[in-house]
């Protein structure tokens, strides 16, 4: 373990971080229902850039009844196996120029990470459970 890693370990080991009780753990690990997915699809923001798969939030909202059964299988498989597919662990990073700044200077760009919407939906469901 490198010097920096030891420092980070010691720093985080001594932080009084909150811990989940058994009921909270079970709530997070509970199977995800179709109703939970449908209600969270409605909360997705429109007009956002899609991830690498090209599916927009508008697509999810329009075809929510058709794709929800597939998402139930996917999300519960992730929870059960504790493994997420590569497409959900991948982001496309684009650099956007800051408005009104010199575009020849690399410091005048900001990164934008594009994530697939079915990953964002899964994260939203887990965040609401927390």
From TrEMBL:
* InterPro entries for the chain: RT_dom
Highest taxon listed in the record's lineage: Eukaryota
Q: Which segments constitute the Reverse transcriptase domain? A: 77-130
Q: What is this protein called?
A: Reverse transcriptase domain-containing protein
């Amino acid at each position: 373990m490198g010097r920096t890693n030891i420092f980070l370990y010691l720093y985080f080991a001594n932080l009084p971080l909150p811990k989940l009780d058994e009921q909270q753990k079970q709530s997070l690990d509970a199977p995800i229902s179709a109703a939970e997915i449908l209600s969270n699809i409605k909360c997705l923001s429109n007009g956002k850039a899609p991830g690498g798969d090209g599916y927009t939030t508008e697509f999810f909202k329009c075809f929510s009844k058709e794709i929800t059964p597939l998402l139930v299988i996917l999300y519960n498989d992730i929870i059960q196996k504790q493994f997420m597919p590569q497409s959900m662990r991948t982001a496309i990073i684009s650099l956007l120029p800051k408005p009104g700044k010199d575009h020849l200077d690399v410091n005048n760009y900001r990164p934008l990470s594009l994530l697939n919407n079915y990953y964002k939906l899964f994260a939203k469901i887990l965040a609401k459970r927390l």
